[in-house]
Design goal:
The protein has 531 residues and is of the alpha+beta class. The protein has two domains: 348 residues, no CATH class; 111 residues, Galactose-binding domain-like (Jelly Rolls, Sandwich), CATH 2.60.120.260. The protein contains 17 helices and eleven strands. It has a four-stranded antiparallel beta sheet with strand order 1-11-4-8, with no helix packed on it.
């Protein structure tokens, strides 16, 4: 009997090895075809180099996964009951065809994106698209995989009563659930490690490719493969808003009766903000930035501008003069487009302060003969961005956030499967997952309606709007801690932000899901004695 069991185990092991070998061949073939198709319009040398780069990437990612899997198996082989359950969960997951399909999609996605882009696109935007789409796709696939695995591994064991056999051993139900979650968490660590290595490798590879102008390489290194912190100009609008509000009250302005004081203060603050950020024709305005730390790993600091104009200038560009510590720069910026100007990092003084002056040099038009006013009142329209770390360190922090998000979904799936069958548990988890993804948009939309249409809301509908907004704000914690946009824009992900994500998504949400799963599972009858 034992020999037969050993034969079945060996056969199962050979089947698993054959599956992974077939997966490797299929992924290399898919990568080869995608690279060749993406470069079909180029010459044979370009197609060959792109295909070779993709195949090397697939092979590197595959063998990194195999090496990481050996490390995971070593860790789960240690003497601790939950680790034994974790090892069984991982081995079970790797035998599932759905997981194999998801891993293949991840592999082809990450290794195919760098070569499936138009060569005429600037290198900076190609890397940004690779980071944004690669991390977004990886997050989605990992989320779906964790929900499916968490629901199937627990629900199927309960339906088949295999869990009853395991729990006859000296292991409690809480330790059993912990082992299931640890298996999923370790699998997430393994996959995110491979994803991180692949992203770093291809990002640096794309950055090393020849470019038409040196400025393109500088822009890629300083604005994408970086960890920059944005700083807005210093503004103290409190006193000016209070003075304007006082004037309205003294004049007994009708708007005091038509609008709530909170909305009125917000409108006055926006008006003061717009005035401070506006440049009349040929006006020279100074902006001061504080708390700027010395830039590291970079000799330049970026000034980010997005000019807004009421009418399109005659030349189609916004002509400005930028003065920084006596040096004058002539700027010709596209209206309503975010652009960066590289400044030497030495312009930041020892106290972390920087003062700049902008002069509006726009000529008049037939519609505006006296000239056109230029404004920088929009979000992110006037910022200093300075580099404070490496791209690899920033990516590591982003991957930590992806791990805690994926591991939370594992806890959510276990919570649902503790009391429901596999189909219902999986459906419920997917619905909650989708709600969490769109809650950020829902919160922002309702907040805008409350702030800008408060007079149109009745005394009954406004509390409902506020309740839905607060509920959406709680659920939006999941989408708020998405690292993709920050990484693709070269913005630093602070450790405090990572810790906040671990607190909300991991400790609070994940802890509540695990606690609920334990309460349901500990009271569930796993088997009945039949006489």
């Amino acid at each position: 009997m034992n020999a037969g069991g050993g034969g079945r185990t060996a056969a199962g092991g050979r089947t698993s090895q054959l599956r992974w070998a077939a997966a490797f061949v299929v992924s290399v073939g898919a990568a080869f075809g995608l690279a060749y198709a993406a470069q079909e319009s180029g010459d044979s040398t370009t197609r060959l180099s792109s295909t070779a780069g993709m195949v090397v990437g697939v092979a590197g990612a595959f063998w990194s996964f195999i090496f990481g899997l050996l490390l995971v198996r070593f860790v789960t082989g240690l003497e601790w009951a939950p680790l034994g359950v974790a090892r069984t969960t991982i081995e079970e997951a790797l035998r599932k065809k759905v997981v194999l399909a998801i891993l293949l999609l991840l592999l082809v996605l990450l290794t195919g994106l760098p070569f499936a882009q138009d060569e005429s696109t600037l290198p900076k935007y190609r890397v940004q698209l690779f980071l944004d789409s690669g991390l977004g796709g990886a997050s989605l696939l990992l989320g779906l995989m964790n929900i499916f695995l968490a629901c199937s591994t627990l629900a199927h064991e309960l339906e088949d009563q295999r869990a009853f056999v395991t729990l006859t051993k000296p292991i409690g139900r809480g330790a059993f659930l912990l082992g299931k979650w640890l298996g999923l968490a370790l699998l997430n660590v393994l996959l995110l490690g491979v994803i991180g290595l692949t992203i770093v490798g291809y990002s640096r590879f794309m950055a090393s490719l020849p470019v038409d102008h040196d400025q393109e390489s500088v822009a890629m290194a300083e604005e994408v493969l970086a960890a920059r912190i944005p700083v807005e100009p210093v503004e103290d609008n409190t006193e000016k808003v209070a003075a304007l509000l006082k004037q309205l009250k003294e004049a007994n302005d009708p708007s005091l009766k038509e609008t709530s004081e909170e909305t009125l203060k917000r409108n006055l603050w926006q008006r003061v903000h717009n005035d401070l950020r506006s440049l009349s024709p040929f006006e020279r305005v100074g902006f001061e930035f504080e708390n700027l730390k010395p830039a590291v790993l970079s000799d330049t600091t970026q000034l980010q501008l997005r000019p807004e104009v009421a009418a399109l200038p005659l030349e189609g560009v916004v002509n400005l003069e930028l003065e920084v510590r006596g040096t004058v720069y002539k700027l010709a910026l596209k209206p309503r487009v975010l652009q960066s100007v590289a400044l030497p990092s030495r312009v930041i003084d020892a106290e972390g302060k920087l003062q700049i002056f902008l002069t509006n040099r726009l000529a008049g038009t037939a519609q505006f003969p006296q000239g056109i006013t230029v404004s920088f009142s929009g979000m992110d329209s006037l910022q200093i961005l300075y580099n404070t770390g490496s791209f690899e360190g920033n990516l590591a922090r982003g991957l930590m956030l992806l791990w805690v998000r994926a591991s939370f979904l594992g806890a959510l799936g276990l919570c649902a499967a503790a009391g429901l069958g596999f189909p219902v548990a999986c459906l419920l988890s997917l619905v909650l997952y989708m709600i969490a993804l769109i809650s950020g948009f829902l919160r922002d939309s309702i907040t805008y309606a409350i702030e800008n249409q408060s007079e149109d809301l009745t005394k009954f509908s406004k509390p409902l709007y506020v309740f839905v907004r607060d509920l959406a704000d709680i659920l939006a914690k999941y989408s708020d801690f998405s690292p993709g946009p920050a990484l693709s824009d070269g913005l630093c992900i602070p450790w405090a932000f990572v810790a906040n994500g671990f607190l909300w998504v991991g400790l609070i949400w994940g802890g509540l899901c695990f606690l609920l799963a334990w309460l349901v599972f500990s009271r569930r009858e796993l088997g009945r004695v039949q006489v």
